[in-house]
Structure formats: structure tokens, C-alpha cells
Amino acid sequence: MVRFELFHVFFVSKKKVGSVKDEVEKAAEEQKKNADDFDEDPSPEDVMLMFMQADSKKEVDRDVHAWLRSLWEVYKTILDLLKNNAKLEDCYHETARRAFDFCLSNDRPLEFKRLCDTIRNHQASTKSNSTFENAVNANNPHTIQRMLETRFKQMDVAIECNMWREAQQTV
Q: Residue 111: is its pLDDT beyond 60?
């Protein structure tokens, strides 16, 4: 049930980011269609219209940035909530891999670096906080397999982003 709720929040946020990005792409296509001959002097109405569209574009860019930030916060929150819960360990690793894809697809190297640091800290705390009832057992073969899969994904994304130092730290 908790897993469903977490992924519902994730999907709602991702859907909103997708719709805002679609709006930006439509606006960019419309602006290309409306481009006039550069040799003509624009009329005062055209200058005013270009000014209004530029203002609108800034507002849409702010909306996209706000929704990307919101989605990023959803990823961080889910990872922090699930960091040492054995019952939701699969959800944790799936969220981490999706966060890697988010950083790659939206060209967010700074967030990727922070995400890698966060995951390293979570894995270090997993080894020291194994006294809780539902704590992740770092010696469990299934846990080790999931950690390795997540680390390989992390390394692949680091290489695709040309973040060689991060890829080396992952290894």
C-alpha cells in the first residue's frame, strides 16, 4: 500500500512535468512558425507581440523549472523515507534508478552528483544501522544484488554524462 502511494505521488509529478514540457515545445514550434522575414522592419504591433511572447516564455520556463524542482524533491523524499526499510528495498532501488534517468534526461549533472552522494551515505548508514526491526541487512545476497544493479546504473549514467570522477567513485 505504501509503495502504491509513493509511486502515485511520483507519477502525478512526472505527468505534470511532461505536460509543462509539452507546452514549452508547442510554444517554441509556434514561435518558429510566426517568424517573419528578417529583412523587413517589424511593425510596432509586431514588436509589442514579440515582447509579450518573450515575457510569456520566461513565465513558462519558470513553471518548467518549478515542476522539475518539485519532481526532484519527490525523488529525494522517497529515497530518504525508504533508505533503511527492508520491506520497501525494491522500491528504494527502483526510485534511485528512476532518479538517475531523470538526471540524464533533463541534463542535471549537479543533482546527479548530489544523488550519488546521498546514495553513498544511505549505503554507509545501512551497514551501521542494522539493529532496527525492518532494517536492511547488508549481508543478504538479494540486497547485495540490488545494490550492485543500482550502482551499475549509477556508473552508466555517470559515463553518459561524462562525469568520470563520479563514475570512478561509484566503482
A: yes
